[in-house]
Write a structure and sequence with these properties.
It is a single chain. The chain is an alpha+beta fold and 414 residues long. The chain has three domains: 179 residues, Elongation Factor Tu (Ef-tu), domain 3 (Beta Barrel); 59 residues, OB fold (Dihydrolipoamide Acetyltransferase, E2P), CATH 2.40.50; 119 residues. Helices cover 33% and strands 36% of the residues. The chain is built from four helices and 23 strands. The strands form five sheets. Strands 2-11-14-13-12-15 form a six-stranded antiparallel barrel. A four-stranded mixed sheet has the order 21-1-22-23, with helices on one face. The chain has a four-stranded antiparallel sheet with strand order 3-10-8-5, with no helix packed on it. α2 packs antiparallel against α4. The radius of gyration is 49 Å and the shape is elongated.
Length: 414
C-alpha cells in the first residue's frame, strides 16, 4: 500500500510539473523564427532567366534548283565572309557565261570597227562626193555656155544637167552616211547599244553562275548541315544554318511589374546554367514596346559584348539586372515582407511578445532583400511568412538574426 501511494504521489507531481510548464509556455507564446531590420547597402536588381542567341542566325539556301556537287563545311566549322560553302552543278551556267562573253567581245569589236574603219571611210566618201559635185557643176556651166554659143547641141546641156543631179544625190547620200557614223550618229549609238546588251548578258550569266557557288555572307559558325553531295537544292530549302560570331545577345521575358525599373544601358550579371561558377557581364539594349497579354511579361534583349569562349547559342542563363545602389539603407529579407506588390505592403513584427501587423513603405528591391523606407527601424524583429503566426498571436522569437554589412550575427552575441 505504501508503495502504491508513493507512485500515485509521483504521478501527481509529474502532471503538476507538466501543467506548470505548459502554462508558462502558453504565457510566453509559440516559438517563431524572426529576422531583424539591419542597416546595410542594397542594390536594386531584377532576376530573370534568359537564353543566349547569336546576333544573327542565317539560313543558307539555293535560289535555283540544281544538284549539289560539293559541301565544304561541317557542323561547328568557323567560316569567314565570302568563303565557299556549297557548290552546285554549274556546267550549263558556265557555258552560258562563255557564250555571253563571246557576244560581248564581238560587240566591242564592232564598235572598234565602226570608229576606226566605217566612220573614216564614210568621211572620205563624202569628200569624194563633194569633189564630184564640184566637177559636175563646172561641166554643166561649161556645157550651158557652149550650147548657148552654138558649139554643141541641146543634148550636151541635158547630159551635163543629168550628171549634175546624180552628183548632188551622191553627195547627199555620202553626207548622210558620214553623219550617221560620227559622234552621236546612229551607227555609234547602235554599236554602243549592242555592247551594253552583251554586257548585260554577261552580267546575267555571271549572276546565274554565282548562285551556284554559295558563299558565307559573314564570319560565322556552322550550326547545322542538312544536305550532302548528290542531293537536290531547291529554293526555300535550308542547306546550312549559321550563327554570326562576335557579340552575343540574351533574350529574356520579365514580369511586367519590373518595367519601371528597366532602363536601356542597364548593366547585368549573367551565369550560364552549364557553367555556374563563371559569371559574365551583359547590358540591357532593348525593351519591347508592348506587353505580352497572355503571360504578363515584357521581352528584353541584353548584349554580351565580350562573350566567354564557353558560351554557345541556345544556352540557358540566369540574369541579375542591376539598377542603383543605396548605402546604409534599412534592409529586411524579402521573406518577411507581405503583399509586396500591392498598394500597402506590411510586416508582421514581434512586439511585447505578440505578433503585430505594421504597414511599411518599400524602396529598392534586391535579390532576397527589400529596402524599408518607413514603418520600421534598425533592430525591429519581423516574422517571416514561413512561420505560422497571425496578427495578435502571443509569440516568442528564436535567435533573431541581425544583418550587419553582409554578416549574419545571432542576437545573443550582440
Amino acid at each position: 500500500m505504501k508503495l502504491q501511494f508513493k507512485w500515485a504521489v509521483a504521478a501527481v507531481v509529474v502532471v503538476a510539473c507538466g501543467a506548470a510548464a505548459l502554462l508558462v509556455a502558453n504565457q510566453r507564446g509559440a516559438a517563431v523564427q524572426v529576422v531583424a531590420v539591419a542597416k546595410t547597402d542594397i542594390v536594386q536588381s531584377v532576376v530573370a532567366t534568359g537564353r543566349l542567341n547569336a546576333q544573327a542566325r542565317i539560313d543558307i539556301g539555293a535560289e535555283v534548283t540544281a544538284t549539289v556537287l560539293e559541301v565544304r563545311v561541317r557542323e561547328g566549322d568557323r567560316v569567314r565572309a565570302g568563303q565557299l560553302l556549297v557548290r552546285l552543278q554549274d556546267a550549263e551556267a558556265s557555258a552560258a557565261l562563255v557564250q555571253a562573253r563571246g557576244a560581248l567581245l564581238e560587240a566591242q569589236t564592232r564598235v572598234l570597227q565602226q570608229s576606226s574603219v566605217t566612220a573614216p571611210v564614210a568621211t572620205q566618201a563624202l569628200l569624194q562626193a563633194e569633189a564630184a559635185l564640184r566637177v559636175a557643176e563646172l561641166e554643166y556651166h561649161r556645157a550651158q555656155d557652149l550650147v548657148a554659143r552654138g558649139f554643141y547641141a541641146q543634148q550636151k546641156q541635158d547630159d551635163a544637167r543629168r550628171a549634175l543631179d546624180v552628183a548632188r544625190s551622191a553627195m547627199e547620200s555620202a553626207r548622210l552616211q558620214s553623219a550617221s557614223n560620227q559622234g552621236q550618229g546612229v551607227e555609234p549609238v547602235l554599236a554602243a547599244s549592242r555592247v551594253a546588251q552583251a554586257q548585260a548578258a554577261v552580267d546575267a550569266a555571271t549572276a546565274r553562275l554565282a548562285k551556284l557557288n554559295i558563299v558565307s555572307p559573314a564570319e560565322a559558325v556552322v550550326l547545322s548541315r542538312t544536305t550532302e553531295p548528290g542531293g537536290m537544292a531547291q529554293p526555300g530549302r535550308v542547306l546550312l544554318s549559321l550563327a554570326t560570331v562576335g557579340a552575343l545577345r540574351i533574350d529574356a521575358a520579365l514580369d511586367e511589374k519590373h518595367l519601371r525599373l528597366l532602363t536601356p544601358g542597364m548593366g547585368a550579371r549573367a551565369v550560364a546554367d552549364a557553367f555556374p561558377g563563371q559569371a559574365f557581364e551583359a547590358q540591357l539594349s532593348y525593351i519591347a514596346p508592348v506587353i505580352d497579354p497572355q503571360r504578363g511579361t515584357v521581352d528584353v534583349r541584353l548584349e554580351v559584348a565580350k562573350p566567354p569562349a564557353f558560351l554557345k547559342p541556345d544556352m540557358t542563363v540566369s540574369l541579375e539586372l542591376i539598377g542603383g545602389t543605396h548605402k546604409d539603407a534599412l534592409v529586411l529579407p524579402s521573406v518577411a515582407v507581405r503583399d509586396v506588390d500591392r498598394e500597402v505592403p506590411w510586416v508582421l513584427t514581434l512586439q511585447d511578445g505578440r505578433a503585430n501587423r505594421v504597414s511599411v513603405q518599400l524602396g529598392f528591391r534586391g535579390v532576397g532583400s527589400v529596402e524599408i523606407l518607413q514603418g520600421l527601424k534598425v533592430g525591429d524583429e519581423a516574422i517571416p511568412q514561413t512561420e505560422k503566426a497571425l496578427p495578435g498571436d502571443r509569440v516568442r522569437g528564436i535567435a533573431p538574426v541581425v544583418r550587419e554589412k553582409g554578416l549574419e550575427v545571432p542576437s545573443f552575441i550582440r
